[in-house]
């Protein structure tokens, strides 16, 4: 049995176990809402790569460790404090983090065996990256899905430019620009989830996956599906109509102007949210999602790797929107990022275009070999 689990390097932040044909991966960093570190990414990659080659393992499930007496979190994203520190220090591990995370995202989407994501609780950013490629994405009424990167002066990465672009209508632009969290019903309606299991059933589901006989991949899937239920009502059609009306417009400025002219609470709240985001990175984000509709996942991840390099290096760490956004949210916690420029009208189209110029020749791109 031990040879089914390779050596792990994340100091217990990733737990691995095998039950019959099922390999289980537990994100075990609950005090940080199971946010991903580079070591955790390396452990998940090692486990998935090892299990892909082992015929004894026919399916994989991934879940987040719980927090006693607190709401659950599957994975709240990447370790943004590390991003801030590494950017200021010029630490090459920052580049390694994104290269290896995006490789892991691609591996999950292309995984040759059923990969099941148990997305109970908070699922944001990097948590979406390790769940959206799953063959079965399982949600509960506690699930809150979001790509909130524009709030820290980043863009929805980990394949977000591709999987948000697959959402119906212009939902992808709305989710990408606002970072608005959505519940299980909306996620399933918009193609970001598959199955709803009520929270009261969750302990029994996890117990059965861990300890009941799991002789085949079909049995693993059946263990989940026998507890599936109808998800709570999703967003009304009026909301999706509003989203399409405003977020289908050609620019961030046009979207903001349209929201400002609408006389309803939803538009006012959405406008206020966008006014808190980085103007530059909203422009980059909108362009990414629009391009994502015409890209393969591999090409999208290569583009995102270009973009994230520029997010930290185009202006240098001292003037990076991402470094500033993380400072305001997680370092100084003043929640008052000083975006530069401060308004959408001042955004330089040439700078936005520069984000989409790769810093590497194609033959030297760190993700050149993704198929």
TrEMBL record:
Keywords: Hydrolase
Entry keyword Iron: no
Domain of life from the UniProt record: Bacteria
Pfam family, any one: ECH_2
Domain Enoyl-CoA hydratase/isomerase: 23-356
InterPro entries: ClpP/crotonase-like_dom_sf, ECH_dom, HIBYL-CoA-H
Keyword Transferase: no
Designated name of the protein: Enoyl-CoA hydratase/carnithine racemase
Taxonomic path: Bacteria, Pseudomonadati, Pseudomonadota, Betaproteobacteria, Burkholderiales
């Amino acid at each position: 049995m031990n040879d089914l689990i390779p050596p792990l390097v994340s100091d217990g932040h990733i737990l691995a176990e095998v039950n019959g044909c099922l390999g289980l991966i537990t994100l075990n960093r609950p005090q940080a809402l199971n946010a991903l570190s580079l070591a955790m990414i390396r452990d998940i990659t090692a486990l998935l790569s090892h299990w892909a080659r082992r015929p004894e393992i026919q399916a994989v499930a991934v879940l987040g460790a719980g927090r006693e007496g607190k709401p659950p979190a599957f994975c709240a994203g990447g370790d943004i404090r590390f991003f801030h520190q590494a950017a200021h220090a010029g630490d090459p591990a920052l580049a390694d983090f994104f290269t290896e995370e995006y490789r892991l995202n691609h591996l999950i989407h292309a995984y040759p065996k059923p990969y099941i994501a148990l997305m109970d609780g908070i699922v944001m950013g990097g948590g979406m990256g390790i769940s959206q490629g799953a063959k079965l994405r399982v949600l509960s009424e506690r699930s809150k899905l979001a790509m909130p990167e524009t709030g820290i002066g980043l863009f929805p990465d980990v394949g977000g430019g591709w999987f948000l672009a697959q959402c119906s209508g212009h939902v992808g632009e709305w989710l990408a620009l606002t970072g608005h969290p959505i519940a299980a019903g909306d996620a399933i309606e918009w193609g970001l989830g598959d199955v709803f299991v009520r929270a009261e059933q969750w302990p029994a589901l996890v117990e059965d996956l861990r300890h009941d006989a799991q002789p085949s991949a079909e049995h693993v899937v059946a263990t989940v599906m026998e507890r599936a239920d109808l998800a709570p009502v999703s967003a009304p059609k009026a909301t999706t109509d509003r989203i399409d009306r405003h977020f289908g417009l050609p620019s961030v400025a046009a979207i903001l102007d349209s929201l400002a002219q609408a006389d309803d609470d939803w538009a006012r709240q959405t406008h206020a949210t966008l006014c808190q985001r980085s103007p530059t990175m909203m422009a980059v984000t909108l362009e990414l999602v629009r391009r994502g509709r015409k890209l393969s996942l591999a090409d999208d991840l290569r583009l995102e790797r270009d973009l994230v390099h520029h997010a930290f290096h185009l202006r240098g760490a001292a003037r990076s929107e991402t470094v500033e956004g993380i400072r305001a949210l997680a370092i100084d916690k003043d929640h008052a990022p000083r975006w530069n420029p401060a308004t959408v009208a001042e955004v330089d189209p040439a700078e936005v275009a520069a984000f989409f110029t790769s810093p590497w020749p194609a033959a030297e791109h760190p993700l050149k070999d993704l198929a």
